[in-house]
Amino acid sequence: MKLNNLKNIFVALTIVIGLTSCSSDDDAIVIDPPVVVDFSGTFSQEDQMGRPGINTVFSATPDIENSFNVTIPSQQGAAFQSLFETQLAGLHGAFGVSYENNILGLDITTLTTVLASDVLQVAPGAPTTYFDGTNVLTGRTLTDDVIDVSLILLFGGQNGDRFNGQDLDGDGTPDLPILVTDGVSGSGETPSSTFPYLETPHGS
Amino acid sequence: MYCRKHLKLNKMNKIRKTNLFIIGGLLSLGVVFMAADHIDAPAVVGTTADITDLYAFEGADPDNTVFVANVQGLLAPGSSASFDENVLVEINIDNDGDLVEDLVIQAIPRDGIMYFFGPYAPSQTGLNSTIDEDTQYLGQVVISSGSSATTSEANGISYFAGLREDPFFFDSSQFNAIIGGMASGGFNNPGNDDFDGTNVLSIVVEVPNSLLGGTFSHPAGTGVEVFNTWAEAKRKQ
Question: What pLDDT, in 10s, does the model give residues A9-35?
Fold first, then answer.
C-alpha cells in the first residue's frame, strides 16, 4: 500500500457531512482541507533495550546508563563489558565471595560479554522463552520470569541456588542473602492466547 | 473525530521513578539490580521515549512472531498518558549476528492512529532514522484507550497500539531496600509485585516469519537458529 492511499483515507475521514443551518435549502457537504500525514524528518535515539534489566543492573552511574542507551549494539561490548564485569564482581565482593561460573557454565567475562550486547535472541523455529528449563534465550514471553532467570544467571552459581539464604554453617543466620529470586512469580499475569495478547488495562 | 488526550505523567509514576534512583549505601555502586528497562536511565526517565519492555514470542499462528514494545510504564489506572507523535518506536532485527539492524519495523502515532512501516531494510543504520513513508507503509490501527482492544490486519501483519495492563512483575520495593543497604537478607518469600495494578502503553505487531529475514546460530552456542532484536525510541529532531 502506498502512502497516497493512506493520504486518501485521511482525506475521506475528514469529510464532514452536515446540515447547513443558514440560508441554503439544500443539504451541503463540507469538506475540510485535505490532510497530509507527515512522517518526514530525522529521528534520533533516546532509549533502547533488548534484554530486560541490563542497563539498570550493570550500569553503575547515571552517566553510564545514559551512554548505554545511545550506544549501538555493535559497539556496546567494547564500551561496556569491562565495566559490567567490574560491577558484577563488586556485587559479589560486597558479600565476601567471588562470582562462580553459572548454570550455563559461563565465567564472569563470558557472561558479561554476552549481556553487554543488549539484544534479544529470537528463535522463529523453536520454542520462544527467556528460559523454560530446556530452551534458553530464544525469546521472551509475557509470563517469563525474567527477573528470576537473570538473578540466577548472575548470582546462582553452577547449580543456580547460590545466594538463596542458606545457612550452611548452622549458626542460625543465612550465609548469603536471597538474591536468586525476588519471590514474585508470573501467576498473576493472565495474558490472552490471541492477539493482542496483553490484558485489558486496569481501571477501564 | 478523535480528540487527542492530553499527556500527563501521574504522580505514582514519578514517585516510583524517583525511588529507583535512590543510590543506596550498599557498595556505593549505584543502581545495581534490576527493574527491567522501566526507568533505566536519567535521560529518559519520565519521558515519552522511555521503553519499559520488549517481548518477542511465537504467535497463536506458529508461523508468526509477536513483538511487543512497551513505553511509559507504571501508569496508574485512569492515567491519560498517550503516545508521543514525535517519538518513533523502532523494532530492529539483525539477521546475521553482526549486531547491526538488517530490518526495521517502525511505529509512530498521528492523530489517534498508529502507523506502521516495514519490516524493511533501512537506508541507514544506527542512532538516526528516517521513515520511508513512500514505499514501506504497511498498516495502521486506531489507538485503543479502554478495555476493548481495537486491532487491524494488513498484509498478513496484525497491529495493536494502546493502553494495556503491564505484564511485567517484580518486587522493586525490596530491590530498593537491598540497594539501600536496608535488607541484609535479600529478597522476601513471597515478595510483592510492585507492578501489580499498573498500566503501560503497548505496541503489538504479529509478523509472519517469512517477512523477518534469515537466522544464524545462537551466540551462546546452543545451536538454535535465531535472529537478534531490540527496540529503540527515537525523537524527531
Answer: 444 444 333 333 334 444 444 445 455
CB contact under 8 A, B149 and A56: no
H/E element holding A55?
helix A54-58
Neighbour count for residue A131 (Cβ, 10 Å): 20
Cα distances (angstroms) measured from residue B145 to each of B69, B184, B216: 16, 42, 39
Sign of CA dihedral A161, A165, A169, A175: positive
- CA closest to A15 among chain B residues: B1
pLDDT tens digits, one per residue of B167-181? 999 998 888 787 767
- Rounded Cα distance, A134 and A132, in Å: 5
Three cell numbers, residue B160: 495493536
User: Is 90 exceeded by the pLDDT of residue B5?
Assistant: no
pTM: 0.84
Number of other residues whose CB lies within 10 A of the CB of residue B70: 28
Burial A56-72 (b: 16+ CB within 10 A, else e): bbbbbebebbbbbbbbb
Highest mean pLDDT among A72-76, B80-84, B194-198, B221-225: A72-76
Extract the C-alpha cell encoding A75. 559497539
Contact status of A135 with chain B (Cβ, < 8 Å)? yes
**Tell me: the pLDDT tens digits for A110-156?**
999 999 999 999 999 999 999 998 999 999 999 999 999 999 999 99
In whole angstroms, give the CA distance from residue B158 to residue B153: 4
Question: What's the pLDDT score for residue A138?
Answer: 97
3-state helix, strand, coil in chain A (%, to 5): 35, 10, 55
Angle at A36 between CA A35 and CA A40, to 5 degrees: 150
CA atoms within 13 A on the CB side of B12: 15
**Residues 165-224, chain B: which have Cβ within 8 Å of A?**
165, 167-171, 174-175, 178, 183-193, 196-199, 202, 204, 206, 209, 212, 215, 218-220, 222, 224
Nearest to B136 by CA among B104, B88, B95, B109: B104
Q: Please, which residues 31-60 of chain A have a Cβ atom closer than 8 Å to chain B?
A: 37-50, 52-57, 59-60
With CA atoms as reference, report the closest residue to A42 among B91, B106, B77.
B106
Which one has a higher pLDDT value, A56 or A1? A56
